[in-house]
Specification:
Blueprint (H helix, E strand, L loop, with lengths): L4 E6 L8 H6 L4 E8 L10 H10 L3 E7 L5 H15 L8 E4 L3 H4 L3 H17 L4 E6 H7 L2 H6 L1 E5 L13 E8 L8 E6 L3 H8 L15 H6 L2 E4 L6 H7 L4 H8 L12 E4 L1
Parallel strand pairs: 1-2, 2-3, 3-4, 4-5, 5-6, 6-7
Antiparallel strand pairs: 1-8, 7-8, 9-10
Length: 271
């Protein structure tokens, strides 16, 4: 079975949290509420403190923003307020748009899709890995499959299993979990995706892009034309193999009359 990660999500309602105890209890990550609505004063009053303490304890961190958007303009404003609140920090987990107001669902599927896309696209534009947090029932009713697939999906359904048929990265399975270091109930989550590895490799969420050996050099060279100078012993098929292209393409791109006749010093463009 693929590795899963154990997490919790918190907000001001948990008040003072001992994140060292949380980490020692076996929790891998925490998704922290950054705020709600569209005004700067709606930033979660515990966000800064929770972020600092969770990071200091060695936990991986993500964030969520609770939406009250009644229009696409509101969603745009919420995204900007969220971006301002999380600026200058690094997050190993996505930044989630939290959609759960009845008044939003009452406006139907096209409306809900537009809120999610507006918020998440604004976050992506600002360099974040964006996601959607939503309960299973409204997800199936009010979010189109293509939107659900497009962003990191975090599904809430309390019980022993998640009955959502599509793919999702994270499941919130209870709101009455108990964890050492937190007095009272806390939401518990299971994550099925190694977001920290993906986010760091992509250079998102405040991380600098790493040129690890896993990134294929062909992606950057594919966009640029490479000029190769023919050396003694070279054949067109050998060059094609080296640059993962075909003899036919090299012949066409370089106007070569005879594929068997290339000479030392000849410049071959590889597009």
């Amino acid at each position: 079975m693929a590795k899963t990660f154990k997490g919790i999500d918190v907000s001001q309602y948990q008040q003072n949290i001992d994140f060292k105890k949380v980490k020692a209890s076996g929790v891998d990550f925490v998704i922290i509420r950054a705020g709600f609505g569209k005004y700067a004063n709606q930033k979660d009053p515990y966000f800064e403190k929770n972020y600092k303490a969770a990071k200091a304890a060695g936990l991986k961190v993500g964030a969520y923003w609770y939406s009250y958007a009644a229009s696409v303009e509101d969603a745009k404003a919420e995204a900007q307020t969220c971006i301002n609140a999380i600026k200058g920090k690094t997050f190993e987990y996505p930044i989630y748009f939290d959609l759960e107001e009845r008044s939003q669902f009452a406006k139907g599927r096209a409306f809900c899709n537009s809120l999610v896309k507006t918020f998440c696209n604004a976050l992506e534009h600002a360099g974040y890995w964006a996601g959607l947090y939503i309960s299973r029932s409204p997800l199936q009713q009010y979010i189109s499959a293509y939107v659900a697939k497009r962003y990191a999906l975090w599904v809430a359904e309390y019980g022993s299993r998640c009955n959502y048929g599509g793919t999702y990265g994270m499941w919130q399975y209870t709101s009455s979990g108990r964890v050492s270091g937190i007095s009272g109930n806390v939401d518990m989550d299971i994550c099925y995706v190694d977001y920290p590895a993906k986010i760091k490799a992509a250079g998102l969420n405040g991380f600098k892009k790493t040129n690890s050996s896993t990134t294929k050099p062909t992606t950057s060279s594919a966009k640029k034309t490479v000029t190769y100078t023919v050396k003694r012993g070279d054949t067109l098929s050998g060059i094609a193999r080296r640059y993962k292209t075909t003899v036919a393409k090299l012949v066409k791109d370089n106007g070569i009359k005879n594929a068997n006749l290339i000479y030392v010093g000849q410049k071959i463009k590889i597009k």
